[in-house]
């Protein structure tokens, strides 16, 4: 099979011709696509985009800055994770908190009076504070949510309420939960504005609003929204992204059809987020004050009792001075007891933290290490890591399920960090126990030295040292309480609203009429174009000369124009027709190509029946005869004779009679109405047509005919069905192979291509039969020659 080097090139003119011939498909699909686009534009709600910006800060303001005054922990503050803050902003809890501040529990809609709504409700507008009525919900009762409740205004005082739905959920606004569902509900009631309606499933009152609906709707309805559906809707419309990589300024975007509604939501969401941050920091500061106040309360009683005991002892025993040695010993003893008290306090604090962590009350989230008085840098870093992991976990839980691998990994890291904190606390407690034992030993030595002092002086020194220790500790806590109070008073959030919400542009982001109509037009043109291309590629038949040239190297002789099937002898009956002109062209081309050879026998064949092989042989023979040549036409297809459709022939004698009965040549040749044209029909149908053609009589017949006629045309059987052609082709001087336009399958040419490639058949030419000039680009120019055809 021939491989044309340009077979992959696109012939634009040819494709344009094919498209133009099916112009009605393009027109129909374009109209349908534009109509669908119009319906889409009219029925789609206009969705606008809204934007606001929020600054996360650097965590060096407010309580973070004030807590540095405590100087309890010297660890560099770590910056916040932008991804975690984005997760918190988009979390269901944060969105739910913002929606709880807004009144979005009822959505109002209007079915317009557009003509499209006469078919079905296609054009629907959402209303916000512009509806002609207001729904006052009774949130203490159950409500049917997420279904339309149709309202038809009868007059200024009455309305008609209609409900038709299935599987309707019942919702409790007090707990924000579904409390069952109703399989089906359908009713219609006439009510007065201001009249409360209540049953087991609904409880509300409709009031006539003062809003004048300038364009009254065909129909109104409202939907009672559950909090969960509102949260899901707002989460789907909300997006939070930093303005650039590593930036702390977040851009919050949302989409909705009601500007006031979406702007209010974005502003409320940011305000609640900032308020939550300040609330959390104030909570940490209050815990610090509560801890210090509890310690001061305990020390206040101890300090009062110690001073009273010292005063009573001096008064009762009249002791004023102590010698220098006892002063030194008691001073050392006082220092050691102070150190032991500090160690005991630290151990108690470590044990308290360890107990709370083991009991799982979330101390790592509720108490900041910078307030707790922990002296271990390692433990402080572990607390910071645990807080960061908890913040990551909160961010991932926005969209991730409990089985999410990343969420499980973070939970594992949290457990490992908590285990490390527990181990460090246990080590600190053990270290404190060792230090306490050491201090106790040193105190024991000093106390043994003091045992030799007078009993009264020793007791006085005990009372003085105890009083001084309690007094110093009390002063220390008073100082720290003042610092903590300052920190709480100067507390501020590091989050800041930079830009409040506003609409981005003035055009909707989902419906752009010009673009939609253009896209619809392109689709309307693309569908028929794709259909034509698909059918062209699926169609494996011969489409024209170029198509034939791509699949065979056999030379091309000419085409036969499309004509009426009833006109069998076109060259005779209508000599000015396009068909007659086609055969003249083929005859001239054939005589020109064979001008250097003395050819006599012309064989005409095809791949299968129905391609016009006999039609071409009859009309070509007639054209040769009409040009003044003596021509005889032989019907060698003795299995399926068809000459009777072209000539009034006698089927009693013919080719089979000559080959089998030995009749004289004159008896088998029959005259026709065409001058100079004789025919030899097949005669009686034999049982062994192939064997007859192989007889020497066939060669004898052709020899006789060559002497008598200028041309012998043999109408052979199709090579795709029987083998007679391969017997006859050795007698042929010229072979004409007929293919039919848009009928002959390309695969049918494989056999003749193989014969031609192996040089088993020579002087063969291709003819395309029944080619419609109006349906092919290659010969489209011939349509302009209709003036020359009758």
TrEMBL record:
It is found in: Cell inner membrane. The chain crosses the membrane at residues 21-41, 515-535. SUPFAM superfamilies: P-loop containing nucleoside triphosphate hydrolases. One of its GO terms (molecular function) is ATP binding. Residues 600-720 form the AAA domain. The keyword Transit peptide does not apply. Its EC number is 2.7.10.2. It is a multi-pass membrane protein. It catalyses: L-tyrosyl-[protein] + ATP = O-phospho-L-tyrosyl-[protein] + ADP + H(+). Keywords: ATP-binding, Cell inner membrane, Cell membrane, Kinase, Membrane, Nucleotide-binding, Transferase, Transmembrane, Transmembrane helix, Tyrosine-protein kinase. Signal peptide: none annotated. InterPro entries: AAA_dom, Bact_polysacc_biosynth/exp, LPS_length_determ_N, P-loop_NTPase, Wzc-like_C. Belongs to the etk/wzc family. Belongs to the CpsD/CapB family. NCBIfam families: eps_fam. GO terms for cellular component: plasma membrane. This is non-specific protein-tyrosine kinase. Residues 9-102 form the Polysaccharide chain length determinant N-terminal domain.
């Amino acid at each position: 099979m021939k491989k044309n080097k340009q077979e992959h090139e696109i012939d634009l003119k040819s494709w344009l011709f094919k498209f133009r011939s099916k112009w009605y498909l393009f027109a129909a699909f374009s109209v349908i696509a534009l109509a669908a686009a119009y319906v889409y534009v009219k029925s789609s709600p206009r969705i606008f985009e809204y934007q606001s910006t929020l600054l996360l800060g650097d965590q060096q303001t407010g309580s973070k800055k004030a807590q540095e005054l405590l100087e309890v922990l010297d660890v560099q503050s770590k910056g916040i994770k932008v991804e975690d803050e984005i997760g918190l902003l988009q979390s269901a809890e944060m969105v739910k908190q913002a929606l709880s501040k807004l009144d979005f529990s009822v959505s109002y809609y209007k079915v317009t009076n557009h003509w499209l709504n006469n078919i079905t409700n296609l054009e629907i507008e959402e209303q916000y504070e512009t509806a002609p009525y207001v729904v006052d919900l009774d949130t203490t009762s159950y409500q049917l949510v997420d279904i339309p409740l149709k309202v038809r205004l009868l007059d200024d005082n009455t309305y008609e309420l209609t409900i038709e739905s299935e599987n309707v959920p019942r919702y409790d606004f007090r707990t924000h939960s579904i409390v069952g569902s109703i399989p089906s509900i359908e009713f219609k009631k006439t009510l007065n504005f201001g009249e409360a309606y209540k049953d087991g499933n609904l409880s509300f009152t409709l009031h006539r609003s003062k809003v004048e609906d300038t364009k009254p709707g065909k129909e109104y309805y409202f939907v009672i929204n559950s909090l969960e559906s509102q949260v899901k809707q707002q989460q789907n419309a909300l997006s939070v992204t930093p303005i650039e990589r590593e930036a702390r300024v977040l851009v919050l975007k949302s989409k909705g059809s009601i500007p006031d509604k979406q702007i209010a939501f974005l502003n409320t969401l940011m305000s609640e987020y900032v308020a939550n941050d300040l609330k959390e920091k104030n909570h940490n500061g209050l815990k610090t004050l509560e801890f210090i106040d509890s310690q001061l309360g305990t020390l206040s009683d101890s300090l009062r009792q110690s001073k009273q005991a010292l005063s009573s002892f001096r008064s009762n025993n009249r002791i004023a001075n102590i010698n220098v040695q006892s002063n030194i010993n008691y001073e050392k003893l006082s220092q050691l007891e102070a150190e032991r008290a500090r160690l005991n306090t630290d151990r108690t604090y470590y044990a308290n933290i360890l107990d709370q962590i083991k009991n799982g009350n979330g101390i790592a989230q509720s108490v900041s290490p910078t307030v707790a008085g922990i002296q271990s840098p390692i433990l402080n870093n572990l607390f910071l890591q645990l807080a960061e992991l908890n913040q990551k976990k909160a961010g991932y839980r926005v969209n991730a399920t409990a089985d999410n691998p990343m969420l499980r990994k973070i939970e594992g890291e949290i457990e490992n960090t908590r285990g490390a904190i527990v181990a460090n606390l246990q080590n600190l407690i053990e270290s404190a126990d060792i230090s306490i034992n050491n201090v106790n030993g040193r105190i024991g030595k000093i106390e043994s030295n003091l045992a030799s002092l007078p009993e009264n002086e020793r007791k006085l020194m005990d009372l003085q040292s105890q009083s001084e220790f309690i007094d110093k500790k009390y002063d220390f806590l008073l100082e720290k309480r003042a610092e903590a109070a300052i920190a709480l008073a100067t507390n501020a959030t590091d989050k800041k609203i930079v830009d409040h919400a506003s609409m981005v542009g003035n055009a909707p982001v989902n419906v752009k009429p010009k673009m939609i109509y253009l896209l619809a037009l392109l689709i309307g043109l693309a569908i028929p174009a794709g259909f034509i291309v698909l059918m062209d590629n699926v169609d494996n038949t011969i489409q024209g000369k170029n198509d034939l040239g791509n699949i065979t190297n056999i030379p091309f002789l000419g085409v036969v124009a499309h004509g009426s099937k009833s006109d069998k002898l076109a060259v005779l009956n209508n000599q000015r027709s396009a068909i007659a002109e086609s055969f003249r062209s083929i005859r001239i081309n054939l005589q020109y190509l064979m001008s250097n050879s003395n050819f006599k026998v012309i064989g005409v064949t095809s791949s299968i029946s129905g391609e016009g092989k006999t039609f071409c042989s009859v009309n070509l023979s007639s054209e040769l005869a009409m040009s003044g040549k003596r021509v005889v036409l032989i019907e060698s297809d003795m299995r399926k004779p068809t000459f009777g459709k072209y000539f009034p022939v006698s089927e009693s004698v013919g080719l089979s009679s000559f080959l089998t009965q030995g009749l004289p040549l004159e008896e088998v040749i029959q005259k026709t109405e065409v001058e100079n044209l004789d025919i030899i029909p097949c005669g009686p149908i034999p049982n062994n047509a192939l064997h007859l053609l192989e007889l020497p009589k066939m060669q004898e017949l052709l020899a006789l005919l060559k002497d008598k006629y200028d041309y012998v045309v043999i109408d052979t059987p199709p090579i795709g069905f029987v083998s007679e052609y391969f017997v006859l082709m050795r007698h042929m001087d010229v072979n004409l192979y007929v293919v039919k336009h848009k009928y002959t399958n390309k695969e049918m040419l494989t056999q003749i291509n193989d014969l031609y490639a192996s040089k088993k058949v020579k002087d063969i030419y291709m003819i395309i039969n029944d080619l419609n000039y109006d349906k092919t680009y290659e010969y489209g120019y011939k349509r302009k020659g209709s003036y020359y055809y009758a």
